[in-house]
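Q: I'm writing a short explainer about Succinate dehydrogenase / fumarate reductase cytochrome b subunit for a general audience and would like to include a description of its predicted shape. Could you first generate the structure from this sequence?
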Amino acid sequence: MKKFAFYPGCAPKGASIESYISAKAVMNKLEIDYTEPLSFSCCGAGNIEEVKPSVALGINVRNLAIAETEGRDIITICSTCYLELKKAQRRLEERETLKEEYNEILSEAGLRYEGKVNVYLLHHVILDYFTDTLKKKIKKPLTNIKVYPYYGCHSIRPKHITGYDDSENPSSLEKLIKLLGGIPVSGNRRILCCGFHASFSASRLAMTLTGQNLKEAHDMDADCVVTPCPLCHLNMDANQRKALKTIGEKFIMPVLHIQQLIGLAMGLSPEEIGLDKNVVPALYIV
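A: Of course. Here's the predicted structure. Afterward I'll give you a sentence or two in plain language.
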């Protein structure tokens, strides 16, 4: 059985704590073999890369090396962390000399990166390695619940780096929703940006994008939205009222982390998956 190092990222340990709570609850229920190395650091979320690309790369090579030293692949629950780690892998694959430059630096901390570690989002791991286990543990199938799968950007683009889903027609969330007994309602905006990374520089644009994404889910009669990205979740959940006001709409749309949806189907309580910590009420879909 594969072993994993859990890399939650920053948002799930802070503003999206329910993401972290639900991920650990689901991994424990599925009996996934994982550790959570305390020496992992922030991935930089693309911000450090804009100022100091070499430092951003070094941060993520170090995180990869930590997991590789333990002989474990990485599970993350943040799409931005996923992309940053995958980008670091790609750069070192393309330039062997660059890998050796960073290994010389890593050697000072007793680390080395050989390129043997894989990086996954949690729902990728479940689909690839724990489908049968999940089927056996489903206690409350999501019968008749319409779920809008929202991918956002970083879990699917650019495809030559992320690699798991087709960036124009992804299907991993739909597969998982069906496995849980729900009904996926997939709209065109499920692969479009929510604007999170422009929230400060172009707030109105970010809220417009988020509002339009929510409206599509609402217009398709979805009972809830599900996403693998805690940053997209923040925009669609915590900022939902502001986003809808920006586009002149008013309704309530529960937004769940994908692991919260999995937890519900496995019979975990709302408290066990942090559903009580979501801003938009979601308990009524249970």
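A: For your explainer, you could say: The chain has two domains: 4-122, 137-279.
Q: Perfect, that's easy to follow.
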